[in-house]
Task: structure prediction
Amino acid sequence: MQGRPRFSQWSGFVYTLGQMAPEFPSLGVEKEFAQLTGDAVHGGLVEATELRRVLEDPENRYLGRRLCWVFTAQNMEAFSVTPRSDADLARMVEMISTSGSEEAVHVIVGQAVPASADSPCARSGLPTVAADQLFAFSIDEFTGALSDAILGEPSNQPTGETSPNSNEGSQAHSGARQETRPQLQAVARDLFKRLTARADNRGMTDEHRALNYVALRYPQLYHATAQALRDGKVFIGADASLLQSASRRIVSVSLTFRHRHTDITERYYCLVDVTEVFPFLASRLQPSFG
Result:
């Protein structure tokens, strides 16, 4: 029996989706916050709305640097995030989720850095990541932007994203008009989940970084899936595998479909270069004949 594919080791780069939240690393930091809020901390707990309100004040920015910002992916604490600048810290404060909704998605692109002995997260034992890019959106915002693009309608794209209304995907627009926006949103939501919501996907291996990258930055996958469903095909799954290369780290991301009536299986793939902190598309989506 063939075992599960072996994923590559962590290269130190991160391209991950999940939830980031600040934690009090010590009693002293907690008490300092309590003084700023009139003793609003109860048993070490504080409402996110109150925490965000306090940290958004520039005069209280010093407290944000003393918090431990923990990033959780797939219900597992993956790493701590350290801001490179006050601008990064301000962005991290903006990303504090005040609704508690699992629909909110935080994205971190960055790389591991050595943790100093006096780091707020030193006791956590988690690796430390310096973020080069941080942004957040809701699932509804993301799927709405994709469905509007397929239908050829204007849409506001989530912060940090490129528009999915690309020339490459425009060929699917005319055929998509027979479907409703909610149907297309359902297709986008399902594919987004299959690409990113894997039990061990913390965005730290080459394969998972590639899957997360295409889920966010390559809308042609969604166009292709919508077209396949219109053609009577069933989406089977998505896979990623690291290819052997002497100079670059290349991951093949594939989508597999099966026709409902003929049971013929079709596979499409694209290549993603994950050699550096920012992945990029090395080849566009194309059929696989192997």
About this structure: The chain has one domain: 1-25+67-290. The first helix runs from residue 27 to 37.
